[in-house]
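From the methods appendix. Each design record in this collection lists the tokenized structure first, followed by the designed amino acid sequence. Records were kept in a plain field format so they could be parsed without special tools. The example shown here is representative of the layout used throughout.

RECORD:
FOLD TOKENS (209 positions):
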């Protein structure tokens, strides 16, 4: 896992799953009417909460699976299927619509501070992200690999934080059409990565060589 190619794959997978460009317009919607200082504070809190949750799942997720009797290969297959469904949502633009709906609900319930809900959970740390970090942890061999993955996770979250800070500019530059194109391209890449997870899981059961 500490090989550069593996770390790049881990980074790509997480980046696609979390989708910082797609979160930018949601952040704008949740923080409408707020000052720049308020937006920075909310972005920072969302980053810190998301980082804490991701580290929790990274370092304890596999132990939880072992405790309830689920093998990593079975989880790889289930996780790959879940990621593939997420990719389909991205390709057909259903994912962003759900995010905006969730954001609207969160804004209604927590209009003063949306940093924990819905930003950190479930928009940043959603089922796909949780699945991915547990899968990456399962591929790690030793503490060095886990800490390397942790660094990758944090780097993606830093990009999310920066995307929040630059959200107004990103929206102006890309526009709605640009965001749709980026989301669809990332969806295609995620679909391929999801198939690879399923194949790895099947290989662990001795299916497919």
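DESIGN:
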């Amino acid at each position: 896992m500490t090989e550069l190619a593996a770390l790049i794959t881990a980074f790509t997978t997480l980046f696609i799953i979390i989708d910082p460009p797609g979160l930018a317009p949601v952040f704008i919607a949740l923080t409408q009417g707020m000052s720049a200082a308020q937006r920075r504070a909310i972005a920072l809190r969302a980053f810190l909460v998301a980082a804490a949750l991701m580290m929790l799942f990274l370092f304890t997720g596999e132990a939880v699976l072992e405790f309830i009797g689920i093998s990593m290969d079975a989880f790889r297959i289930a996780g790959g299927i879940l990621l593939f469904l997420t990719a389909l949502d991205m390709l057909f633009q259903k994912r962003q619509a759900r995010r905006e709906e969730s954001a609207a609900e969160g804004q209604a319930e927590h209009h003063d501070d949306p940093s924990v809900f819905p930003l950190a959970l479930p928009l940043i740390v959603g089922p796909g992200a949780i699945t991915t970090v547990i899968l990456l942890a399962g591929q790690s061999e030793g503490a060095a690999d886990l800490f390397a993955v942790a660094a990758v996770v944090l780097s993606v979250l830093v990009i999310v934080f920066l995307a929040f800070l630059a959200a107004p500019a990103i929206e102006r530059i890309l526009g709605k059409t640009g965001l749709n194109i980026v989301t669809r391209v990332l969806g295609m890449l995620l679909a391929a990565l999801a198939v690879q997870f399923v194949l790895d899981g099947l290989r662990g059961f001795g299916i497919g060589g």
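APPENDIX NOTE: Residues 77 and 198 are 4 Å apart (CA to CA).
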